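Supplementary notes for students who missed Thursday's class. We covered one full example, reproduced here. Read the sequence, then the structure, then the short commentary at the end.
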Amino acid sequence: MWGGAVGAAPDYRVIVASLDRTETDRNDDERRKPVQLLEFADVRVGMKILEIGAGSGALAADLLTELERLGRAPKRYLILELSPDLRERSRDTLAARAPRLLERVAWLEQFPELPAAIRMAVDGR
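Structure (token representation):
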């Protein structure tokens, strides 16, 4: 989640406690732990997200649709996936479950150019 100006960190507990969330969403919170995920990812408006190894694309679809619903959708969602079969599978999942957000997603076959601090954390150099 790098580059560009981003908004201030919101109070994720307030967002998750929002009355417009469905009962199903609230019931799933125990398993999904949305506050902890949002705090860990430090999701802010205008950020980019890089998912490494998206597999079926289910997490990407869930995360994008929930962030959109919360008004926090990233401007770009990058998926680093080496397997052509899994890239296709994740595209199919996103096309079916989050078609309106598909234009924000890009599939990568290698790591993008990252700031030095992030590269150090990823590859130890």
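Commentary. The chain has two domains: 8-42, 47-123. The first strand starts at residue 48 and ends at 52. If anything here is unclear, bring it to office hours.
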